[in-house]
Amino acid sequence: MNRLKGKVAVITGGANGIGKVTVNKFLDEGAIVFCWDINTEAGNRLLEENKGRNLKFNKVDTIKITEVEKAAAQIMEEYGAIDILINNAGITRDATLMKMTQDQWQSVLDVNLTGVFNCTQVISGHMVEKGSGKIVNASSVVGLYGNFGQSNYVATKAGVIGLTKEWARELGRKGINVNAVAPGFIATEMVETIPKKLIADLEGKTPLGRLGKPEDIANAYVFLSSEEASFINGTTLSVDGGLVI
Ligand code: NAI
C-alpha cells in the first residue's frame, strides 16, 4: 500500500482488461489516476465502481495528438505534474500475411505505435520540466518471439521494445525511467478470441501451468512505476509464467 502515494498517473486503455485492474491497483497504492480511453461507457462504469476514490476518466483517443495534448494540459493545470505514464492501450486485428488488409495493418500501427508515441512525446515534455517521471509501455511476448497471424501486432510490440530502449537513452539523463512489460497470454477479453484448444496448449507450454491474470501485469506496472525500480531503465520485463525461456 501507498507505494505510489500522491503520484499523478495516466493509464491509457484503462477502462477494460489489464488497464482496468491497473487503475484499481494504482488507486490502492495511493496514486491519483487519470484513465484515458475511447470507451466512454466502460469509463463511466469504472468511475461508478470507484466512487469517492482519486480517479478521473477522460475520453482520449491516443491516436489523436490534439486530444492527448488537451487532456495532459488539463492535468497540468489542476495538479502541476504528471509523474507516471502507463502506455497500456493496444488492439489486435489478426490475419495471416496473405490475408491482412491495409486497414488491419494500419489500425494496429496507429494505436499500438502512434498512440504510444503521442502520449510519450506530450507527457515526457512535462516530466522533463519536473526532472522526474516513470514511463511503462505494454509490449507482448509475441513482440519478442513472433506469432502466427499477427504481422501487424508483432511489428508494433517489437517496435515498443525498441522505443523503450530509445526513450530510456533520451530521457534517462532527465530523470525519467522508461521500461516495458511483455505479458504472456493473459485471461482478458482479448484472449477470448483465441480457440479453446490453443489456450489449453498454451497452458501446457507454460512452466507455471496457467494463463496470466490481469493482476500479474498490473503488479509489474506498479513495480516499474515505483521508487523500488529507480535504477531500472530501458528493460523489458517478461511476465509470462516462463512461457518462453
Ligand atoms: P483490452 O482490449 O481488454 O483493453 C484495451 C483498452 O484500450 C480498451 O479499453 C480500449 O477501449 C482501449 N483503447 C483501444 N484503442 C484506444 C485508443 N486509440 N485510445 C485510447 N484507448 C484505446 O486489452 P488488454 O488485454 O487489457 O491489453 C492491454 C495491453 O496489454 C495491450 O497493449 C495489449 O496489447 C497488451 N497485451 C495483452 C495481452 C493479453 O493476453 N491480454 C498479452 C500481451 C500484451
Question: Structural class, judged by helices and strands?
Answer: alpha/beta
| Beta strand % | 15-25%
**What is the CATH class?**
Alpha Beta
Q: Mind telling me the CATH superfamily name?
A: NAD(P)-binding Rossmann-like Domain
Q: What is the domain total for the residues?
A: 1
Helical content class: 40-55%
Q: Within the CATH hierarchy, at the fold level, what is the topology?
A: Rossmann fold
Bound molecules: 1,4-dihydronicotinamide adenine dinucleotide
| Largest sheet: spatial strand order | 3-2-1-4-5-6-7
What is the 3D form? globular
Number of distinct helices: 9
Count the strands?
Answer: 7
Give helix and strand order, one letter per element, not per position.
EHEHEHEHEHHEHHHE
Low-confidence region ranges: none
The overall average pLDDT, rounded, is 97
Q: Using the CA coordinates, give the radius of gyration.
A: 17 Å
Question: What separation lies between the terminal Cα atoms?
Answer: 32 Å
Largest sheet: 7 strands, parallel
Provide the CATH architecture: 3-Layer(aba) Sandwich
Show the helix and strand layout:
Blueprint (H helix, E strand, L loop, with lengths): L7 E5 L4 H12 L3 E6 L2 H10 L5 E5 L5 H15 L4 E4 L14 H29 L2 E6 L2 H5 L5 H22 L3 E8 L5 H4 L3 H10 L8 H12 L10 E4 L6
Parallel strand pairs: 1-2, 1-4, 2-3, 4-5, 5-6, 6-7
Helix pairs in contact: 1-9, 3-4, 4-6
The chain binds 1,4-dihydronicotinamide adenine dinucleotide (NAI).
1,4-dihydronicotinamide adenine dinucleotide binds next to helix 1, strand 2, helix 4 and helix 7.
Distinctive features:
alpha/beta; single chain; Rossmann fold; seven-stranded parallel sheet; binds 1,4-dihydronicotinamide adenine dinucleotide; 245 residues; 7 strands; globular
